[in-house]
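Researcher: Before we compare anything, I want clean individual predictions. No alignment, no superposition, just each chain on its own. First chain goes here; please echo the sequence and then give the structure tokens.
Model: Echoing the first chain and its structure:
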Amino acid sequence: MGRVRAARASAVTLAIVPAVEATCDDALDFLSGGGAMGACVRAHDWAATSLGSPERWPQPLRQAVRSLFAALQPAALAWGTEPLHLCNDAFARLLAVDGRADLIGASSREKWPLLHDPALGPRLAAVRQDGQPTVVEDHLSCVARNGRVEEAYVSCRLEPVADGAGGVGGVLLVLTETTDRVLSARRTEVLRALAAEAARVRSVEDAHARSMAELARHPADVPFALLYAPDAAGGEAHLVGAAGLAAGGPASPERVALTLTAPAPGWPIAAALARDETLTVDDVATRFGALPGGDWPFAPRVALAIPLAPPGCERPEAVLVVGVSARRALDPGYRSFLELVAGQVAAAIAAGRAYEERRRRADAAAAAGKRARARQRARARAMEARFAGVLEERTRMAREIHDTLLQGVTGIALQLRATLPHVRRSPEGAAEVLERMMALAEATSRDARRAVWDLRGPVAGEGGLPRALLDMARRAAGGAGPAVESAVQGTPRALPRLVHDAIYHVAQEAVANAVRHAAARRIELRLRYARGAVHLTVADDGQGFEFDAGFRSYAGHWGLIGMRERADRIGATLTVASARGEGTTIALRVPCAGRRVASEPGDALSRRGG
């Protein structure tokens, strides 16, 4: 129970000196003084003991008694092989045996339990045997004081006293109480450990668990602890942590009603929260019976209910119930320590809440960053799509110019060159050639106007996409082109510009292919607004073609490839159905949502060109 170390010989305060035979003429001045215990020594019948009358005591014993009475520190003397014990007033006060005359000259374990202690008794025997002084540090000794048996700690210096015959006649014990130092160090370690756990918490629940687990490791100072936190409604407090007591027992209910209307037989949780002050429960045994005593086999009689108000909180958020050790009085130092324990638990809760808040802010910042990066990627994709669209339009217009304007102009130039000889030989034949040239020039002019209009692109103005598609279909059909039927179903709504332009250009390409390459007589163009999607269908009765569903082989079919790329760019689905001699149907489904916009009267618009 204590630390034992050998003392150096120079530390011996009572030297071993030869015994001098006392005579009846010697004065008994060595027995003078000594206060109450000195009076007990003088009144004791020593003649009836193995020591005999004090007049015949050896000189070393006399000197030891004189030093014993003069000592300011608690001291006791054990003399003889069956040691008889004496002590001074300071020793009696330390062990709360003031004025106990029955202790003087006694040797029994019942009268002197400290000297028969399993840790201290063998050290006394060793000093008597080898004559070497020893120090036992921070020895635990249970002392009856303050109306209870308390734990106390003493450091003992054991010094041999010569018997005058070359041996050791007894042992002088000089005590220094170290209870305050031991308790202070122990309690400081509790607070340090709680602070270390508070630095590791990651949530309020983690703070509850870590704090209670740490308190469970220190039952000497905290026999049991319960942590209650009120629910959001404030009607009940829930047990969120326990140490030294199993949750759900009579003294540790899972829920406690927060009512002040009548005193409850349990813990005063509601009162502690309402008053925001520490409450003392001094009838623990009456309320709950015998509760665990921690390191001691004695049930605590007192407990504290301490409200916890973490830093930054105006009102307490929890109540810590802590048991008071049955071996310590609830003095100001003990109370202050338990309130510091509660403060550390409150700090852990605050740390857990702060960590949660930091994590929420970090998660929010990460989510905001993720959204910002997604917007950046979306803008980049939109910009890429726009540039790709511009490049595609340039490529398409290059094909248009090559296939129409350049071929028309080239044809006119060739026919002019071929006409020159006819003008000289046969004016009539030249007129026929000029008629064909005029028709070719007019067709080339129409193609040029269409190409210029296509370069201008659709305008999402009044009427929106439906009007743009109807105008495009009317221009594509021209005066002598195929019959074009167009219809709009559902309520038109505004679409993103990228989606608007993609639908328009797919329809434009499909109609242009039907007019220029399929020799179609009839074209149907339908636009349908459905819930969450827009459907475009362009069908013709032209000559059709062999269809590759995988879009893998389209030599010369650049228009279809362009339509597929536009559909992919806006996440749409493009379906092509065609066979030779059976016409072609192109369907585009665009999943999207938009705002409803004003449309022309009626849910369906129809135009027919031809």
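Researcher: Okay. Second chain, same rules.
Model: Second chain and its structure:
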Amino acid sequence: MSHDLFSPRSVWFGPQPVPGARRAFTMVEAIIVIVLVGILASVSAVRFTDSLDRRVEVSLRHLEAVLGSLAHRQTVSQSQLALVVDGDPRTDERVCIRLEVLNQWSEEDEPVWEPDVMSRPAWFDQEIKLTHVYVDSYEVEGPFRMAIPHGEPRPTISIEIAYGERGQIVELVPHDLKPHRLILSSDAQPDSAWLLPVDLDDEGMAEEAWDW
């Protein structure tokens, strides 16, 4: 006579579970879980860092494109350009650096500055922050517009970016058509992280002996 497997008369072999008892993790299982959690945490941290680095690189390239476009077009174009810092890096959560073109044939009574349609703005926020803007070694506060007439000498433009505990400077010097980068040391003091060029003639020091 056959019995249903789940009938009260079914016979089970092997150790019987104790009613109300909980199965505990073995030491090996606990170690495996800890290792897996550590691996997942490290992968997440690497991905976060990689993501930030990628966004920093994109922001820096946009900034380099703005400055590079300014350098090229100020040399070959007859239009008057201006570098615009739209926002105050000290207080605003988002700051934009872009180019504007002076429209001489505006419908207004006088020429009007208009956004440049041939270049895209570079945006910065609290995570990738624009901290300082220097023109010929002097810090300028935003928002501001700096007009650069065609054919006239261009000042040295230095823009400092901070992200986390790191930072970089994108700098465009006179007569160069391409900006270059300077990496800030993480242990440098804010006032001595990098050196700015100084025009000795402007400072009235052209005739003074150099102190080596």
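Researcher: What stands out in the second chain?
Model: The beta strands are 81-86, 95-103, 112-115, 122-124, 129-135, 138-139, 144-148, 157-163, 166-172, 180-183. Additionally, Confidence is low (pLDDT under 50) at residues 188-195.
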